[in-house]
Design a protein that fits this description.
Blueprint lengths: L6 H15 L23 E7 L6 H16 L1 E7 L4 H10 L4 E5 H9 L10 E17 L14 E3 L6 H12 L8 E3 L3 H10 L4 E6 L4 H10 L3 E4 L5 H7 L4 E5 L1 H4 L5 E13 L4 H13 L1 H7 L21 H10 L2
Parallel strand pairs: 1-2, 1-3, 5-6, 5-7
Antiparallel strand pairs: 3-10, 4-7, 4-8, 4-10, 9-10
Length: 332
């Protein structure tokens, strides 16, 4: 995988373009896919909106790139919006506020099963699996934290409310044998989290994101040896007992110029849509994501891991029928 921090300069340059493309989500008449045969792979006409994540995270950058790709390559007008990420994205997708949503696979599994933050099963399906998120735990070097078990009594940012980061942070705390009340959880977005790490008001953070995450690049550049990344992989087996989507991975040292590689817990990302999206639209969008993957990789290096090889590895999340048709066609 190409994860060198030198790619961050290119990423931030694209980020300025992404900002110009974003807009707020909102309930609107859904006419996307209009004017095309539902059995085709023609996107048709209309508008689509994309729910991404924090403005300093990878969802936001890749989501903006996807919006531009859709607008440039189809007759659709696509916009992307900053959000609190996975859980919020799914809730607003199901409510009709957005047409496409980035999500961590564990949050999506909760949604289809009606578990966790969801009161009941959500009527959603996936365009496919995309790049993985890495569980990145960064702590102040003087905080006395060498493992998740050491979170007890510490001020830990667990991510934005209703985010996928918050979901996995809470699961890590439980897997470490801690009560949630034993940790002084700070439910903050990534910008406020990094500011708190810099001024010493936060002892550590949990973040689930692609590599590199721009805000963490800033944190390590600013504080250097005053912060360190810790390994949560000993908790992987416990997490897998509750949800098989978790995998092992590594954050390479060159990602943030740390002294050594750090083992990590990996969660796949998925692109979600409502199950009632027209088949032709889902087919066109899926084709675009995988056929034009090199264009998304130019937006952020994390997109290098968007491949057809694992596009359908999303069980128990259902693949949209239009997406299944697209992937079948692309792999022939």
């Amino acid at each position: 995988m190409r994860q060198q921090t030198t790619r961050y300069l290119a990423t931030t340059a694209v980020g300025a373009l992404v900002l110009a493309l974003t807009s707020c989500g909102g309930q609107q008449e859904n006419t996307a896919g209009a004017g095309a045969d539902d059995t085709s792979c023609d996107a048709g006409e209309g508008r689509v909106s994309i729910a991404t994540g924090n403005s300093t995270g990878v969802y936001f950058v890749v989501g903006g790139g996807l919006a531009k790709l859709i607008s440039d390559d189809t007759d659709l007008k696509a916009t992307s919006a900053e959000t609190g990420a996975s859980v919020q994205n799914i809730e607003q997708l199901a409510a009709g506020d957005y047409d496409i949503a980035f999500s961590l696979a564990d949050s999506a599994v909760d949604a289809v099963n009606g578990d966790g933050s969801f009161d009941g099963p959500q009527d959603i399906s996936a365009l496919g699996r995309i790049y993985p998120n890495y569980t990145q735990i960064v702590v102040r070097a003087d905080a006395g934290i060498d493992s998740v078990e050491d979170f007890a009594g510490k001020r830990i940012s667990t991510g934005s409310p209703l985010s996928g980061t918050e979901v996995i942070a809470r699961k890590l705390i439980a897997a470490a044998g801690l009560e949630q009340s034993e940790v002084s959880a700070q439910r903050l977005d990534l910008i406020k989290t990094v500011d708190g790490m810099k001024d010493g008001s936060i002892d550590g953070l949990v973040w689930s994101g692609g590599l590199p995450t721009p805000a963490l690049t800033d944190l390590f550049t600013s504080l250097g040896e005053d912060v360190k990344m810790i390994d949560a992989s000993p908790l992987l087996g416990t997490l897998q007992d509750g949800n098989p989507v978790y995998e092992d991975g590594t954050v390479p040292a060159e990602t943030y110029d740390t002294p050594e590689d750090t083992p990590s817990i990996v969660v796949p990302n998925v692109l979600l849509v409502r199950s009632d999206m027209p088949d032709n639209l889902a087919c066109a969008l899926t084709t675009l994501v995988y056929d034009k993957q090199p264009e998304l990789e130019k937006v952020h290096p994390a997109a290098a891991d968007i491949t057809l090889d694992n596009a359908t590895e999303i069980d128990p999340i259902e693949l949209h029928p239009g997406s299944e048709r697209a992937i079948d066609s692309l792999t022939k």
